[in-house]
Design brief:
Layout: H1 2-11, H2 19-25, E1 32-36, E2 39-45, E3 51-57
Antiparallel strand pairs: 1-2, 2-3
Bound molecules: adenosine-5'-triphosphate.
């Protein structure tokens, strides 16, 4: 029981992607989907085929 809860929580941890990988997936933020209160959203595809929506938070830079 405890183990399965831990496993679940482990799976729920945020995944950190290098900015380079995000840039490649979004083809350098070419496919603009729309913008919301916190920033712009871009379409991306990871090399394994996973389709993602990437939000660039307003007021942040891509330095990190
Ligand atoms: N998964 C998605 N697929 C397609 N388009 C998306 C997706 N997520 C966001 N968008 C597009 O980006 C726009 C902004 O999305 P966002 O999630 O920022 O909206 P919001 O909830 O209004 O904003 P916020 O959460 O910043 O207040 C949407 O209106 C939509 O056009």
């Amino acid at each position: 029981m405890t183990l399965s809860v831990c496993y679940f929580m482990e799976r729920e941890k945020p995944i950190r992607f290098p900015s380079q990988q995000i840039r490649i997936a979004t083809e350098n933020f070419t496919n603009f989907l729309g913008s919301g209160g916190f920033g712009s959203v871009y379409k991306g595809v990871f090399s394994n085929g996973t389709l993602v929506a990437v939000k660039v938070l307003r007021g942040t830079s891509d330095e990190n």
